[in-house]
Amino acid sequence: MGLNIYNSLSRQKEEFVPIQEGRVSMYVCGPTVYDYPHIGHAKSYVSFDIVVRYLRYLGYNVRYVQNITDVGHLLDSGEDRILKRAEREKVEPMELVEKYTHAYFQAMDALNVMRPDISPHAAAHIPEQIEFVEKLLAKGYAYESKGSVYFDVDKWPNYGKLSGRKVEDQQAGARVDVLDEKKNPADFAIWKKAEPEHIMQWNSPWSRGYPGWHLECSAMSMKYLGESLDIHGGGMENQFPHHECEIAQSEALTGKSFVKYWMHNNMVMVDGVKMSKSLGNFTTVSDALSKFSGQQIRFFVMQSHYRSPVDFSDMAITAAGQGLERLVQTVNNLTSMIGQVVDGDASDEIKEIAAKYRKQFEADMNDDFNTPNAIGTLFDFSKEINKRVQEGTLETKQSLMVLNETFRDLSENVLGLSFEKEESDVEAAPFIDLLLEIRRELREKKEWQLSDLIRDEMQNRGVLIKDGKEKTSWSVKK
RNA sequence: GGCGGCGUGGCCAAGUGGCUAAGGCGGAGGUCUGCAAAAUCUCUAUUCAUCGGUUCGAAUCCGAUCGCCGCCUCCA
Description:
By secondary structure, the chain is an alpha/beta fold. The chain has 14 helices and 15 strands. It binds one RNA strand through helix 1, strand 9, helix 6, strand 12 and strand 13.
């Protein structure tokens, strides 16, 4: 069975067949960089990171584009998010953008999220967006009104196909005041005339102004990925209106299908309600990183499915971290044994075991990136390995290496976990070995008090001591 | 008002018609150990919000009820 992806457009799982064989074009809505990223962003971008990693694991040549929104994203009040925040922090808008773009990438790096191949900024693509508006006007799908340009929803009968909504069912002005310059309240801005106090503005044929928020994703995805893309991802809350508007303006422009597979990830909840900037109930990634490792947060996110909401709490992350430790231990167990066994071919039985778990893992992932199941498979695999390590039935170096490579390929390359030791740990290794040698002599003399003191103090410093039958080994606890 | 989703053990979480309802955390006990830790083994849901229905067979499909959540032009 090949890869199946749940397509929001058809509301069912579909077999994944890229437009062009062997290649995948993928676009994910990136953050509006006006504040620090929070755990909600972590879930979203970790989820899509896994999509990219798995597609690459399957051998696809993936081009992954994720935008940085630095203009045009308005608040209910009509103010630009970036401008408002810049005013508050008393910095230039672009200074603010720079600061939070850095913070975003820093957080994503800590979570081991791969950088997109292209991270285009909306403000750096104003000419492309103006051209987009011009073409829509020429085709009659948009109209100018008082210096702004709106997409004419009435001209586009498919409007609502993604979100399953009908324009007439919506409560106009439910949240935002209706502008009388629009023909239909559902029409959305693709170019906005700037108020004088709005600093971020550009010349256009209609007014000095700025592009509508929905436009950037269409313009930039087309520029870098072509008129039709394989996968477009984003948060569920963006399905309507953002993605609906993207489809409308893009397909109106090209007359072609814009996106083959729409993927939407669910929200992070706190005590049953959505974690969001506006509710103020968010934990930033850097706050979380002061208590937990990036890997632990990542593991927590992957333990639920990307289309399910997940409730965030310290307890839940701690529990996830405990589970993760078992996988880390498994790799430690394997690597510490490699030096102790003889050279020789891997047994067929071991090769079969490795192949069996790899196959199961792939089956899990093929089912719409079911990471909770894939992790379950890793735990089963881990148990099987630990059992054999303990029984001492892994007799050759190559047997160990087959298991080690398979286990690490799946957990590191696909799930993005990392079992590499920190550089500082490697530097400390000779000293740790020295301490253990001293402790060994103390234990031989049965000086338990002193040997236990060494063990406890090392543990307090994050080094875990394990006394085996033959020898003592250690690992770093994160 | 419209559209969509969810409710599975003490906690988290897979499973969407058919072997004994994955897995993790937590808990109990055993093995190993000088004692620990780690690992490992065993146990920890006759039952899937409730009530009906369809079916040889339902956590899974249908209907109703209760509870919760998201979106309806701000948010990943």
